[in-house]
Amino acid sequence: MVIPWLVMIGICLIVIKSFFDFFHGKSFAQVLEMKESRFSIEIFMALLIIYIILMFGYGMIYFILSIEGIVLVENGELRQVSIIGSIIHSVYFSGVTLLSVGYGDITPVGIGRFIALTQALIGYILPAAFVVRVLQSRDRSRDI
Hints:
This protein is mainly α. About 70% of the residues lie in helices and about 5% in strands. The protein contains five helices and two strands. It has helices at about 5-25, 25-30, 40-65, 85-100, 110-144, and strands at about 70-75, 105-110. It is elongated and about 60 Å long. The termini are far apart. About 20% of the residues are buried. Residues about 25-35 have low confidence and may be disordered.
């Protein structure tokens, strides 16, 4: 009963560390050298990796909550699905929530609503954060 919550806390710590490293410029700024072009494959790949980490991280949080009895409701009715089906639904819901407003075919119940709200907020703020980060790195490189 305690192990799923420990796994969920571990996933949350990984997601928080990814954000912390991004905003403080430790891992991505050192690994990926920003170029002066308008489109940079390094920046695109960094954004893609962060989105994948967030999608699977939140998907695993939804999956752990579904194991604990807090489920995602599909088409307005509670459905019992297999473990693999639950993982697929959780990652699908996570991706739809992160990348769009959502389709409404799967809705969260209970604390899942708050978690989906935070994920949607991150999905909207992340592209703007990347633009600001690129502009800051360009300003720093011009000052040097």
